Amino acid sequence: MRGPLLFSDIDTPGLASLEGYRRGGGYATLAAVVGKKPADECIEIVKQSGLRGRGGAGFPTGLKWSFVPKNSPRARYIVCNADESEPGTFKDRELMEKNPHLLIEGMVLAGYAIGSNTGYIYLRGEFEYIQRILDRAIDETRAAGLSGANVAGSGFRFDLHTHLGAGAYICGEETALLSSLEGFRGQPRLKPPFPAVEGLYACPTLVNNVETLMNVPHILNHGAAWFRQWGTEKSPGTKILSVSGPVKRPGNYEVPLGMPLSQLIDDLCGGMRDGMKVKAVIPGGSSVPLLPASLLDTGLDFESMNAAGTFLGSGGVIVIDEGTCMVDALWNITRFYEHESCGKCTPCREGTYWMSEVLRRLEHGEGRADDLDLLADLADNILGKSFCALGDAAAMPVQGALLHFRDEFEHHVTHRSCLVNRRRDGLSVVRPCEQAHA
Amino acid sequence: MSATVKVTVDGRTIEVPAGTLITDAAREAEVHVPIFCAHSKLPPLGACRICVVEVGMPKLGPGRLPVTGADGAPEIAWLPKVQTGCTTTVADGMHVRTDSAVAVKARKGVMEFLLVNHPLDCPVCDEGGECQLQDLAFAFGADFSRMADAKRTFVSEDLGPIVKKEANRCIVCMRCVRYCDEMMGDDALTAHQRGVLTEISSFNRQPLECEQCGNCIEVCPVGALTALPYRFKARPWDLRQHITVCPYCPAGCSVRLGVRGMEILRARGTEFRGVNQEYLCVRGRFGYEFVSSPDRLSSPLLRLGGSLAPAGFDEAVTYAAARLRDIAAAHGPQAIAFLGGDKLNLEEQYLFQKLARGVLGTSNVDARTRATARLPGDAILRATGAGRPSLTLDQLSRAGEALVLGDDLQGEAPYVQSLLILGQHQNGLHLTVAHPRRVKLARSKFGGEWLALKPGSELTLVNALTAASLEAGVPAGVPAEVGAALASLASALGSPEAGARETGISADDLRRAAKRLCAADQKAIVFGRAYTEHPQAAALVQAIENLGWASGALTAKRASVMFVGPQHDSQGALDMGLTPDRLPGYVDPADAAARRPFEQQWGAALDLSPGLSAPEILEAAAEGRVKALWIVADEWVKSAPDRARIERALERCELVIVNDLFLTATAKRAHVVFAAASFAEKEGVAVNCERRLQRSARAISPRRGARPDGEIFQAVARGLGATWSYRTPEDVFREIARLTPGYQGLSWAQLLPLGPQWTSPAPLAGPRIAPAIAPAAAEAGDGLWMLSGGTLFLQGSLSYRGAQLPKLAGEARARLHPDQAQRLGIGDGDTVEIAGSGGSVTLAATLDDAVPAGSVFVPYAFRECDLNRLGAPAGAGLRVRVRKTAAALVGA
Predict the structure, then answer these.
(1) Alpha helices (H) in B78-201, listed in sequence order
(2) What's residue B775's pLDDT?
(3) How many CB atoms lie within 10 A of CB A262?
(4) Phi, psi (degrees; rounded to nearest 5) at B201
(5) Are A18-227 and A326-436 equal in CATH topology?
(6) I want to staple B705 with a disulfide (CB 3.0 to 4.6 A). Which of B298, B331, B413, B799 is the partner?
(7) Could you tell me which CATH class the domain A326-436 is placed in?
């Protein structure tokens, strides 16, 4: 058993098939709930459970559900955000690959709760093979009467479709996702109106992450109190963390929320590889500020992470060892945001480009004395001024790195060489980190 | 929610309507919040972020009472993040700061980002000097640059003959893309790539397939999109700007001419001015070019001894006056007819008919030279509400339902079309387009209903819509006598089923269209020359009046029927009595009391009998009953409905006077040609399709040898012994405003910046409800229906005198449905001969499935294609035969 809840049976052979899923009790919740339990009660249970969005923002799921107007004359939609594109995050991929029916059951239940008859699963472009898995599973449920015109004989209709994105990070942002799903350029839209009120095709739309929806059958099956056996008061339940970096056993781990980060790295992942030492950890995907090694005891829950100046985010734990040059790492991250900025708003479009140019100079030993202040100021000019959170996501790592590792940046400027590389191999070169790339 | 809210911007508290955006509220408070991506015609976007401001609400303590600070002022809880003013609506008690350290830093930061990749090529950029980025960088930017890295670059592109794109200058505000979509309905532009590599272009990077309106250039806040025809021609500070009214369609757009010396170098719209603001169509933007054509007449011409020869102005005036006096003496004033004039300014129209009626004593006056049948002078007035307060163009775009009857607005009034598209996109407007062809507005992308009636069944359609409207009973708000008349009309018109057979539109569709029109709170019916120049015009316009009352588009208080006339001042021509049976203000000459002010002012007893209409004048002249013609600003040889007859008429007349800018085919047959000044060379008033009076400024002095038409009329009137002494158009306008019902009380001064719509305190004509039944059923016979109509790139004889419009228009083509073409053995590009009762024309064919089978469509504005050679339409329209001919003969 790799985890207490979603990972409890994830490696069971044959789980991806309807038969295998049913063998473990799958779709029992659906049969017990749809048409039998009032929809409002379902929303209330999810509210009571304290389940929070697992896609990154941690918004209370039940509350989000309750925002969808009940008396709207328009169609209601439920959209599963399976665009999983946050660097360092790879949990949804494994969940959908191995247990597609849990997602489908979650979506049907969510659709039932908010009164939606149509669901879309928006997958990132690279997940073509997962689309095939999901499509097969959807076909199975339709044939078995678990989705489609008459779900489990209740008279409730729920049609499910998958949609493959075209490869843009921004389409993980819910409004950009909806634009893309409608066939438009994947760019975020103004909020308000929020998708719950005016989303897909200007109809009320619920957008939830894969992991969030997968928690739903369990919660509706066992109840809110049962779910709260894990996690903290404000962050109940479990979270799947995708650990990458030079740890001994990288991979997905399901842990109760609130577990200290050090426990995850040292115990579950077996500690660092080859005697390396942790220099910093990016705890929630590349968009969140990093934690220096001194804060490794921080609990992996929404509140503790906020208190430590960062976010739990999507749970992409990126471990950075002491041999990594922060200038190089930051340039890498910033280039990602430059590449993925959708171009809609000025601060993000131009700011990520400019920051990336400055970091390129720093990395190549061509930095200037005022570049660090410039970089900090550029990040400040992006933060809170961009249209959506992508700009913030690009600015925060810059601010975090400059706050905690300013000496490395200064060394690049003043010595035209790398602090980290010199320690490692005693060489001072004009382009300090190139050797690491080679 | 209260109707207004109080908001404080930089310490200034103002009251604005709830729902106002912060940027607009700031403008009210006279605080400058810069914008780039926001645009008055586009929904909020919030992309460029230059309008970031600090926003806060008063802090609330216990009992929701405001917390006050030590100084007694309420404490403000400022939001942690700056907000975009262009997307945030104000709330009551809201405080906005644009001058705080946070707001200033945020704005400077955005400005700096905007300049990161913007080239420093202002000295060679057409936009330099009137560039919003330049201005705002000056106002809000830093005075130094921290950007030391390489800028990203693109290759520039020509997007067709009009638009030049320099993508390096683009700040990706998306105005062009959104304007093209929301306003033009063209979707010609899109963004390629993403992030810093975002580049605006056409979808396939091919020349733009669109209306070539150039509005993308207009809304571009920087020099990323510039106009190829204007490229590198001038610096904006070298240009004098004069706001004139466009001389083409009746929308009456304000055109800002940029003039250097005596040369007009460009035309633009003006944000926040005119009915159109920034909008111009392709004709408005490039149609001014005829003004500086080298072919302009540079002196009057006189036919002495067989050929036309240059003459002095006084000589021409003396000759014309003498000949008019002789003919009037010999044959009576009714042997003289005045034609044309709906391209003149209001004052000139007034003088033209005053000269005819008051000086010469003839009431043979008609501006509607293309008409094929007599239409009463007040028919259109009654159909559009008899001077009741009427629909504005702005209200048109906010209507719930708009019924467009018969006209292809893309050709007839592009701005009206754009407003309907805008309304469809932004205000939930539903379109119903009755047109045999699938015109642009009838395309499915606009979500409307296309009533694809069979050609020739126009009258049946309008009657069927009226009948369907009356099935729900007589609408509220109509005068009592109208209610009674409508009830009997219902029985006279029969059921929509009868109309369904003849029009080819199902009775259900007719009922649905009528129901939508009747049910809409705000509605509009738009019609134009397709009906007023129809052989059944009188019945059609009467039918429209019936439909107006029956659908509630006309009520005792308001009129929501709009007449989109053929020329920019067609409404003025009707108002000024350029019709044979009405004096200015639609005064019936038989009404002694109403007539008296005119007789007193003009010092003449007026001829009480109605004169001849244009088609009647044509016939009378061809038969020799009319001996003298004065044709003003009208290429009558091409616009008269029957070519053979007009040729004969001009041959037989003893005197033909023509006022024109060019030696047109009509002028070549004249005895006296007066060289006239163009719209840009004179000042005056034009009345647009919403009956709005707009003053047009004089941008340049008249071409040497040319005179404004008004001066020509005054000179001839004085030559005839009248004591006219108007020094300026304003003098004339004062007389008009004194005499003309509907215009009374208007003053020249109140016509700027945006003149009023004229209305009459009492309706100028009583309602008339009468069954309008087609006199004869459409003759079947063989052959195809000849469909004609306006086209986008050309309108009238002036439009093909410039460089751009004819180039864009290409050559005239006969458009046939592919099935029809196949039956006739005609392929795309084949040369075809179209033959009618009067003759034939030969041109190339194009296959077009927007044209219904059983018909052929040729626009009428092309220079080389004189459709009046086919003969005059009669009955329900014109029938022609189309056959393939040998290509080599064309133009040989």
Answers:
(1) 101-116, 132-140, 175-182
(2) 58
(3) 17
(4) -165, -175
(5) no
(6) B298
(7) mainly alpha
Q: Cα angle at A381 between A377 and A383, to 5 degrees?
A: 110
Residue of B nearest to A373 (CA): B146
Q: Which of A44, A52, A65 is nearest to A303 (CA)?
A: A52
Q: Encode pLDDT of A265-279 as tens digits.
A: 999 999 999 999 999
Question: What residues of chain B score a pLDDT lower than 50?
Answer: 1, 888-892
For residue B116, give the chain A residue with the closest CA. Answer: A350
Find how far residue A245's CA is from the centre of its chain. Answer: 17
Structural domain spans, chain A:
18-227, 238-281+295-315, 326-436
Interface test with chain A among B86, B87, B118, B194, by most A beta carbons within 10 Å = B194
| B462 Cβ neighbours under 8 A, 6+ residues apart | B405, B540, B543, B544, B546, B547, B772
Residue type for B771, please?
P
Q: Is B658 left (phi over 0), alpha (psi -120 to 50) or beta?
A: beta
Which chain A residue has its CA at the smallest distance from B108's CA?
A381
> Strand locations in B500-569, DSSP E?
523-528, 561-564
CA B208 – CA B214 distance, rounded (Å) = 11
Whether B106 and A361 lie within 8 Å, measured CB to CB:
no
CA-closest candidate to residue B524, choices B690, B292, B772, B344:
B690
Q: Which domains does chain B have, with CATH numbers?
A: 4-114 (3.10.20.740), 123-136+147-292 (3.30.70.20), 301-370+571-743 (3.40.50.740), 379-565 (3.40.228.10), 784-886 (2.40.40.20)
CB within 8 Å: A354 and B171: no
- The span from the CA of B327 to the CA of B344, in Å, is 26
Q: What residues of chain A have any CB closer than 8 angstroms to a CB in chain B?
A: 168, 170, 185, 190, 338-347, 349-354, 357-358, 361, 368, 374, 377, 380-382, 384-387
Measured CA angle at B172 (ends B169, B175), to 5 deg: 110
Contact A347 B109 (CB under 8 A): yes
- The two three-digit tokens of residue B525, written as one number: 């019916």
Q: What one-letter code names the amino acid at B696?
A: S
pLDDT at A339 over 50: yes
Q: For residue A349, which residues of chain B lie inside 8 Å, CB to CB?
A: 113, 172, 195-196, 198
- Show residues of chain B in contact with A384, CB under 8 Å: 80-82, 106
Interface test with B, best of A201, A345, A348 (most B CBs within 10 A): A345
Nearest CB among B146, B174, B196 relative to A341 is that of B196
Q: Which residues of B touch A413 (CB under 8 A)?
A: none
Nearest to B808 by CA among B250, B227, B286, B438: B286
List chain A residues with CB under 8 Å of B132.
none
Instruction: Quickly name the fold that domain A238-281+295-315 has.
Output: Ubiquitin-like (UB roll) (3.10.20)
Quote the CATH superfamily of domain A18-227: NADH-ubiquinone oxidoreductase 51kDa subunit (3.40.50.11540)
φ/ψ bin of A186: left (φ > 0), alpha (ψ from -120 to 50), beta (otherwise): beta
pLDDT at A425: 41
Q: b/e string for A3-34 if b means 16 or more Cβ within 10 A?
A: bebbbebbeeeebbebebbeeeebbebbeebb
For residue A339, what are the CA distances in angstroms to A167, A225, A330, A332, B766?
12, 44, 14, 11, 69
Which ipTM did the prediction report? Answer: 0.93
Crossing angle (nearest 10°) for helices A128-143 and A100-114: 60
Q: Which residues of B touch A (CB under 8 A)?
A: 44-50, 52, 80-82, 87, 105-106, 109-110, 112-114, 116-117, 146-150, 152, 171-172, 174, 190-191, 193-198
pLDDT tens per residue, range B375-391: 999 999 999 999 999 99
**pTM of the predicted structure, to 2 decimals:** 0.94
- Does the distance separating the beta carbons of A350 and B113 come in below 8 Å? yes
